[in-house]
Design a protein that fits this description.
Blueprint: E1 3-9, H1 14-24, E2 31-38, E3 41-48, H2 51-58, E4 67-73, E5 88-89, E6 95-103, H3 106-115, H4 127-139, H5 144-154, E7 157-165, E8 172-177, E9 182-185, E10 189-193, E11 205-208, E12 213-218, E13 221-225, E14 235-238, H6 254-260, H7 262-270, H8 289-293, E15 297-302, H9 304-321, E16 324-329, H10 330-333, E17 344-350, H11 356-367, E18 371-376, H12 382-386, E19 389-392, H13 405-424, H14 430-441, H15 443-452, H16 455-462, E20 469-474, H17 478-493, E21 496-501, E22 518-522, H18 531-544, E23 548-554, E24 564-568, H19 576-594
Parallel strand pairs: 15-16, 15-17, 17-18, 18-19, 20-21, 20-22, 22-23, 23-24
Antiparallel strand pairs: 1-4, 1-10, 2-3, 2-4, 5-6, 6-7, 7-8, 8-12, 9-10, 9-11, 11-14, 12-13
Helix pairs in contact: 3-4, 4-5, 7-13, 7-15, 9-13, 9-17, 13-14, 15-19, 16-19, 17-19
This protein binds fructose -6-phosphate.
Length: 612
């Protein structure tokens, strides 16, 4: 986690740095700091708390500087205090470092550096890098890039580092290992950042940086080398979204804006996937029909909300394509001995493309011989880069920490994959596939219809603001939707919330129900296996024990026992999560507001989790 930005160029550095940090705050927001390069010394300011604290303390007494680095932190080593905020400096106060990730051998480094006389002023792992670089820079006669190359050879862990020295403040040196860093190429100005969002206002020219590559930016250009100093060819690409897409656009919060962007996000992800002769076109999979036919197993790896999308993949792909699907929490998968071979397809789902747990699980799967397909929302991020193939979702930038539109597009992407596999394996006929695809195309308008009628739900939500616990029930694909509803409520409203499969209720969770407990129950669409009736029985069971039951059910479905009913449009049963999740998102959003919480930046969280 943590957001990193560096600027050097023809203009004042402070605006791109602060604006860049604002756009990276989703990566962590418990402290922020900057180092500005002025001749012969560095101006450093850092503050615990959100970026606003740093801005207030900066006031208007800033030195003029055309280069600098900035950091917004999500604490790992050392609490969120002024001292632990980045940048960290060497004992002369001339070399400053910012860092995203974890230096695993920092304790050993710190002991060695202390033995040499270095004084430490923070509890962070990062500070050891500042002292190490300081020594190495002297050894290499003031050559900071050479010092960085050498330093990286001794560091273990995951890190993006940027360093600057007061004697040559226009030169910023960066490196990445298992953490993101991207270079922005402007007009006589250059940027380094965790994410293109930081510099999108200035340039859309971006350059990918590989593992263990050292990048040096100056006001006149940039250079990328490997750890031995060999020049690397820049891999440039154009960023396809613009600054406006990352603004709130009149909504009170990014999350609300992103909820309302869902019809477009889903439509964009679906567009142009059916050919005139009713074939699902997914060339991105890079798999021949023969390879698809010989697939024996699919393993989905993901975390959090993306994991819930993976659970929905299991229901859809098994039903349509008749391939066994396992869904694994990425952080657990890595430490097992998975049974995998070349006929296993691993699907890694990640909005950010940088989630460390998912990345490590992906590497584990690849090492075991699997083919890996990424479903990702962030172009050129690490997970797609390290996968054999990638299917991009087209949700656009998701800024709010709680995932909404990315989830819906992930679900839609797994439907597309399921339909494609089913078609190639001849488990569904072309006309069945075309019918289902057309039902998918109808989803954006149905989401729109739900969003047009959310006001009563918002009012209803506020009446539950004092509840201590909310339970969510679902069956079949409604179960992952229930888990997602509970996760959203936990992260935003800080309430106890749990999602259960309706059938599991009687095996324990029903003991949680007491007088007045809100229970949100999703009634499965259609009548397959009488799941709708079974859920109605579950509703009666919790109602009989005092629960207030909010039921989500499709138009026209019979509902009994509900305290409140939220209607969603009719859709094929497997597609229901795309619709049922929307009121759950609104419920969590409104509850967070009612409880006075920060919606876009909930406590203790970060958007991109780049530590294990
Ligand atoms: C919840 C949420 C997280 C992410 C998870 C994976 O709202 O946003 O649970 O879904 O951290 O993140 P990505 O998809 O970026 O790998």
């Amino acid at each position: 986690m943590c957001g990193i930005v560096g600027y050097t160029g023809k203009n004042s550095a402070i605006t791109p740095l602060i604006e860049g940090l604002r756009r990276l705050e989703y990566r962590g927001y418990d402290s922020a700091g900057i180092a500005l390069g002025t001749s012969g010394k560095l101006f450093i300011e850092k503050r615990a708390g959100k970026l606003g604290n740093l801005e207030s303390s900066l006031g208007d007494q800033l030195p003029s500087a055309t280069s600098g680095i900035g950091h917004t932190r999500w604490a790992t080593h050392g609490g969120p205090t002024d001292n632990n905020a980045h940048p960290h400096v060497d004992n002369e106060g001339k070399l400053a470092v910012i860092h995203n990730g974890i230096i695993e051998n920092y304790n050993q480094l710190k002991a060695e550096l202390q033995a040499k006389g270095h004084k430490f002023h923070s509890d962070t792992d990062t500070e050891s890098v500042a002292h190490l670089l300081s020594d190495l820079r002297k050894e290499f006669n003031g050559d900071l890039p050479a010092a960085m190359r050498e330093a990286v050879k001794t560091l273990r862990g995951s890190f993006t580092l940027l360093a600057v020295h007061a004697d040559n403040p226009g030169v910023i040196v960066g490196v990445r290992r298992n953490s993101p860093l991207v270079l922005g190429v402007g007009d006589s100005e250059y940027f380094l950042a965790s994410d293109v969002a930081a510099f999108i206002e200035y340039t859309k020219r971006a350059v990918e940086l590989g593992q263990d590559e050292i990048v040096v930016i100056t006001p006149t250009g940039f250079e990328i080398t490997d750890l031995d100093g060999n020049a690397q060819t820049p891999r440039e690409y154009q960023v396809t979204w613009d600054a406006e897409a990352a603004q709130k656009g009149g909504f009170s919060h990014f999350m609300l804006k992103e909820i309302f962007e869902q019809p477009k996000a889903v439509a964009d992800t679906l567009i142009g996937r059916l050919t005139d002769n009713n074939q699902i076109e997914l060339d991105e999979l890079k798999m021949s029909d023969e390879e698809i036919r010989s697939l024996k197993k699919i393993v989905v790896i993901a975390c959090g909300t993306a994991y819930h999308a993976g659970m929905i993949a299991k229901y859809a792909i098994e039903k349509w394509a008749q391939i066994s699907v396992e869904v694994e929490i990425a952080s657990e998968y890595r430490y097992r001995d998975p049974i995998i071979d070349a006929q296993t397809l691993v699907i890694a789902i990640s909005q950010s493309g940088e989630t460390m747990d998912t990345l490590m699980a992906l590497r584990h799967a690849k090492a075991a011989g699997a083919r890996v397909l990424a479903i990702c929302n962030t172009n050129s991020s690490t997970i797609p880069r390290e996968s054999d193939a990638v299917l991009y979702t087209h949700a656009g930038p998701e800024i709010a920490v709680a995932s909404t539109k990315a989830f819906l597009t992930q679900v839609v992407a797994v439907y597309l994959i399921g339909l494609h596999l089913a078609q190639v394996r001849k488990e569904l006929t072309d006309s069945e596939v075309a019918d289902l695809y057309n039902e998918l195309l109808a989803l954006p308008a149905k989401i729109e219809a739900i969003l047009e009628t959310v006001e009563p739900l918002r009012a209803l939500t506020r009446t539950f603001a004092k509840s201590s616990s909310v339970l969510f029930l679902g069956r079949n694909v409604g179960f992952p939707a229930a888990l997602e509803g509970a996760l959203k409520l936990k992260e935003l409203a800080y309430m106890h919330a749990e999602g259960f499969a309706g059938g599991e209720l009687k095996h324990g969770p029903i003991a949680l129900i007491e007088e007045g407990t809100p229970v949100i129950a999703i009634v499965p669409a259609g009548h397959e296996h009488s799941l709708d009736e079974k859920m109605l029985s579950n509703i009666q069971e919790v109602k009989a024990r005092g629960a207030q039951v909010i039921v989500i059910a499709e138009e026209g479905a019979e509902v009994t026992g509900a305290t409140h009913v939220i209607r969603i449009p009719v859709a094929p049963a497997l597609f229901q999560p795309v619709l049922a999740t929307v009121p759950l998102q609104v419920f969590a959003y409104e509850m967070a507001i009612a409880r006075g919480n920060d919606v876009d930046q909930p406590r203790n969280l970060a958007k991109s989790v780049t530590v294990e």
